[in-house]
Structures are given as C-alpha cells and as structure tokens.
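As a representative case, we now present a protein record of this kind.
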Amino acid sequence: MKVQNKKVEKLCSFYVSDWHLATMILPYINSKIEKNVKIIPVLENDLKENIKILVEKLNLKNKEKILSINWKNINSIKYENIENKLNKEINTKTENIILVNGSKDYIEKNNCNIEKWLEKSSILNIKIINFFEVTDFNSNIVEILNKHDKVFNTSGEKEIEEVFG
C-alpha cells in the first residue's frame, strides 16, 4: 500500500489468546529493538501484565526496553488520539513498527487513522502489523489477507503464499 509516495507495509497475524499474542511477538520485538526499531503498540486490550510476566520468564537481552514500551490499551478510535500518540512516539531517525490489536472494527478504524496521519507526516516508511484474534472475527480470512502485504506468525514475517499458498 502506498500513501503519497510513502511505503506502508501492512502485515496481518492471527492469534488465539492474549498469551499466544504476547508469546508470538516478544522474540520479534526483542530482535527489532536490537536494531533500534521503534515499536508502537495501538491496543484495544491492555497487554502490560502478560508482557511483564513473559519477559520475566524468558531470557531476553532487551528486557528493560521491552518493558518500557507502552503496552496499555488506547482509545484511539478518535483520530486525535492516534495523532497524539504517533506524534509523540514515532522516531523519524529509525524504522517504526505499529502493532495494532483489537476487534476487527478497532483495527480497521485505527488503520484509517494511521493512514490519515501518514498523509500529513514526513515519515517515509512504516510497518503496520494487525493482530486478529481468531475467535473474534466473522470475516473470511481471504478478505483480511487481501488487505495485507505479508503475514506475521511465530517464525516472523512471511509472504502470504508461504503460509497460505
């Protein structure tokens, strides 16, 4: 997806519980933090406790940096809320990854808000990973895949054909 000469890479992911989600993203986030990538969660449900418990149990190099990420939920359905969050947290000197998690409606509205913000910003490249809870959406999985460039799973970023081909 391109927004005014900007590259917006969108990934989708599917999970079965908040614990599964936290377990799946922690190794990925740990590796991205090592490369100075900025991680920005946009969450409908608070993941702070799950992340804290798992980080304590796992041997991760970047424990403090992971715990310093704002894992609390945000009411970002309103454009102003996402605009404030992104203006505050986006790092113009490094790669940025926005993690969007919640109901299908929450994800869709926030993707629209993020794209609206990107149209006004000077950020050139950004990655958005949308996390869908398998039991929470009634849509056809093909419909979701068609709106994304890649799939994210426990082994990282994959081409859609690699996973669903």
About this structure: The mean pLDDT is 89. Residues 37 and 94 are 6 Å apart (CA to CA). Residues 18-34 form the longest helix (17 residues). Strands lie at 2-3, 6-15, 38-43, 96-101, 125-133, 150-153, 156-159.
